[in-house]
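Sharing in case it's useful to others searching the archive later.

Someone asked me privately for the predicted structure of Protein-tyrosine-phosphatase, so I'm posting the question and my answer publicly. Question first, with the sequence:
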Amino acid sequence: MTAPDAGRGIGNGERDAEITTTFVGLPRDSFRILHVSTGNVCRSPITERLTRHFVAERLGVLGGGLIVESAGTWGHEGAPMEANAEAVLAEFGADASGFVGRELLDEHVIMADLVLTATRDHRAQVISMGHSAGLRTFTLKEFTRLVRAIDPATLPPLEDGVVARARALVRAAAALRGWLLAPNAEADEVYDPYGAPLPFFRSIGDEIHEALDPVVTALTGVTARM
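And my answer, the predicted structure tokens:
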């Protein structure tokens, strides 16, 4: 198996390596977030790049321990993201450059600490791959619902490192699953805008933004700037 692309983190190259290994002078590991959709050209690229953008806005270099990637269950390997997805990211001020679509592989799931999917079907596909993925795989909206129920005071402070905080958040969310159910199946879905006009892409971008905001706040301990 080949190693997953390391270029999907918040930083790149030597600077990314430096950020990932240094925190107040101490060694630090990383926490990988994997976003999954179907083609990896619409929803998961938007979610990947918005996550990176929001984490960088709130933590700057301190967010370097979070590596954010994406892949597709029927991935358009090597394809760029859809032009309308790029347009949506630009409107949020997020960087869409250099994106290349990937097909979801076993090693992506193995290395991920948190897998966030667009739909329940994607979640089922990831879990069916094995690798003990069940406790760390959620739909994006499911994870948002669970995160909102977690008391931030029960999570490690940012001073302990964003990686420790992220791992504790996933454990807490997994413990709540089964107690906080969606009102209906549609509540956990982000629908596919592939081939749709820009206004529909914008609506999906807004959905993703709304779902990501409490997740990034919980991960970082920092609320969005107004």
